[in-house]
Amino acid sequence: MPLTIDRAFPGGNIIVDAIRDDQIHLHQDLRDTDRGWFYWYFRITGAAGRTIRFNFTASRAIGTRGPAISTDDGLTWRWLGAETVSGNGFTHTFGSGQNDVRFSFAMPYQLSHWQHFANARPWLGVSTVGVTRAGRDVPIVTIGTGEVPIFIAARHHCCEMMPNYAIEGLIDFIHNTPDGQHLGKKATIHIVPFADLDGVEAGDQGKCRLPRDHGRDYAGTSIYPEIAAIRAKLDQLKPQVVLDLHCPWIAGKNNEHIYLVGCEAPEYASEQRRFSEILESVARGPLPVPASGYLPFGVDWNTNANYDGGCGLGQYGWTLEGIRLSGSFELPYANVGVAEVNAESTRAFGADLARALAAYISS
Questions:
Q1: What distance in Å separates the CA atoms of residue 53 and residue 62, rounded to the nearest whole number?
Q2: Does the pLDDT of residue 58 top 80, yes or no?
Q3: Residue 211 preceded by cis peptide, ω within 30
Q4: Rounded Cα gap, residues 236 and 230, in angstroms
Q5: Can you tell me the distance from the alpha carbon of 363 to that of 360, in angstroms, rounded to the nearest whole number?
Q6: Coil, strand or helix: which one is 125?
């Protein structure tokens, strides 16, 4: 079987520069992204029994636990490990049966993952919030029957996939546990798992997309029909809580802990800090969520300059009638402190988020 590398599947993203024996030179496809970014996802076939070095030739492409690897067509993932990394590349020795392997900078979550999850839960109320430019129906799920409306979204930057696993954990916690069912009696939670569904399926970076990305499309007139539809839904729901789930940069300072992004207005920031304290107090999962991780406005990247391109959902939420809490959460790709971020630990964070929401709306 000849060695081949391709991206011809949902979420695929790679450009191959050269293949020279067991050295492969390649880089992430930035397309309409205005700077170097790090999302990539490819399939390699015909490499069984070989040791191959993958050299990335553009901007940084590998995080703290090395790349993620899947041997079941992208259904499940594990970290390959930092020990496989040197420079901006990694090495892998393929087993004799490893003829079809996928690698990515993190753990991809595609529409097919969501469909598999939702179809296994016939009790889950899934409908459509809007339609993308490419004609895809954007799913929205509603769980709970209570009077307090809560709105949660993810993938405004389509490469930021880890929050989707948290959404799974949050949903299962609400349905399957007494504490979660208590939340469902007090609140109705509306969740959009893919704000940029076209980008998710096309394998785009999403972050810093030109002329602006989905996470900056809440200022003025939205240019993406799905964001316009989300805004219309928010006007209808009048949520008391709006949470926008993101991932930060690939690694380093303020990129390896979970935190709420602070708002400029002191009264809003005070409420965000209170929610952070509640989350810390109720959390039981393996990913630590200390309230001290809160990133105040004016610190590090959280300044006005970061929002020159427009307004995000977390900011927009504060303009809604009846809002109590709004903000963006940053959930790292690989490390929270020394704890490993993966599908299971992130689902546990979703359960912790549900516990915090229950405590918050009762306070």
A1: 13
A2: yes
A3: yes
A4: 10
A5: 5
A6: strand
